[in-house]
């Protein structure tokens, strides 16, 4: 029988589709020797298969450990979010809400610095620190943010006026800007539309990797939604 033109793939396909081959030629199976991945010695095919299974089991165990770790981290985050939300709900004085929001957010999520501004607040709150006047540029920036901004701080850029709200702005090298807005009720402004931003929450860190342009913003968006819902008490009654 000529073997000219037969490839390794042809042989592999033959063995796959001829399961009885090694039953009829058991001596071939027993004599196959393969190089061990853990040394230079040769091992039998059966031993090599056992090694492969062990490697697969080890990989699955590592993946399981990683999944458990992620699960534990997610539970911890959910608990922090719950405590933060609860602290706002238990704040009876609406004027204290921004301070509680920022303080508890920093505590629960280990955020070095945070600040908040609300514009268009009801008359009773306009003398408070969080209602200090902000420029039209900041308001337009907040309106333009469809998702939270994360990235490096450029202190001399007009677009980073909000970075000056921190207690120690010079130490901040990365920041997140989370717009505060109320999503329109279904049918009120048209599907998918939201009201204009009424404030901005900013989070800052001296760590350049804490807030980066390529990081996911889904969690920050949820923070913004919860904060906006709580701070709605500060707005004039429509």
Kindly list the characteristics that best describe this protein:
alpha+beta; Beta-Lactamase; 2 domains; 7 helices; 238 residues; 6 strands; two-stranded antiparallel sheet
Q: Spell the H/E element sequence.
A: HHHEEHHEHEEEH
Give a quick account of the main beta sheet: strands, pairing sense, barrel closure.
4 strands, antiparallel
The CATH topology of the largest domain corresponds to Beta-Lactamase
| CATH evolutionary superfamily of the largest domain | GAF domain
Count the DSSP helices.
Answer: 7
CATH class of the largest domain: Alpha Beta
Distance between the termini: 92 Å
Domain count: the total is 2
Strand content: 5-15%
Roughly what is the average pLDDT, rounded to an integer?
A: 84
Question: Could you walk me through the main structural features you see in this protein, from its secondary elements to its overall organization?
Answer:
The chain folds into two domains: 8-59, no CATH class; 91-234, Beta-Lactamase. Strand 1 (33-35) and strand 2 (42-44) form a beta hairpin. Helix 4 packs antiparallel against helix 5 (97-109) and helix 4 (45-89) runs parallel beside helix 7. It is an alpha+beta fold and 238 residues long. The chain starts with 7 loop residues before the first helix and ends in a 7-residue tail after the last helix. It has helices at residues 8-16, 21-24, 26-31, 45-89, 97-109, 136-144, 218-231; strands at 33-35, 42-44, 113-118, 149-152, 174-180, 199-205. Helices cover 42% and strands 13% of the residues. The strands form two sheets. A four-stranded antiparallel beta sheet has the order 3-6-5-4, sandwiched between helices. It has a two-stranded antiparallel ribbon with strand order 1-2. The longest helix is centred in the first third of the chain and has 45 residues, at 45-89.
């Amino acid at each position: 029988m000529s073997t000219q033109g037969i490839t390794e793939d042809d042989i592999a396909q033959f063995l796959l589709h001829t399961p009885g081959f090694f039953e009829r030629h058991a001596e071939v199976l027993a004599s196959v020797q393969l190089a061990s991945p853990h040394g230079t010695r040769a091992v039998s095919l059966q031993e090599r298969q056992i090694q492969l299974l062990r490697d697969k089991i080890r990989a699955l165990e590592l993946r399981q450990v990683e999944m458990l770790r992620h699960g534990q981290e997610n539970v911890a985050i959910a608990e922090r979010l719950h405590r933060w939300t609860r602290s706002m709900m238990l704040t009876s004085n609406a004027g204290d809400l921004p301070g509680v929001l920022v303080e508890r957010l920093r505590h629960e999520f280990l955020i070095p610095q945070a600040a908040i501004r609300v514009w268009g607040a009801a008359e009773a709150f306009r003398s408070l620190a969080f209602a200090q006047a902000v420029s039209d540029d900041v308001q337009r920036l907040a309106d333009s943010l469809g998702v939270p901004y994360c990235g490096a701080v450029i202190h001399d850029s007009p677009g980073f006026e909000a970075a000056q709200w921190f207690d120690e702005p010079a130490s901040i090298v990365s920041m997140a800007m989370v717009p505060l807005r109320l999503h329109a009720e279904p049918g009120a402004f048209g599907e998918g539309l939201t009201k204009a931003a009424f404030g901005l929450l900013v989070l800052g860190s001296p760590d350049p990797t804490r807030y980066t342009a390529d990081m996911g913003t889904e969690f920050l968006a949820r923070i913004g939604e919860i904060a906006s819902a709580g701070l709605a008490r500060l707005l004039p009654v429509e």
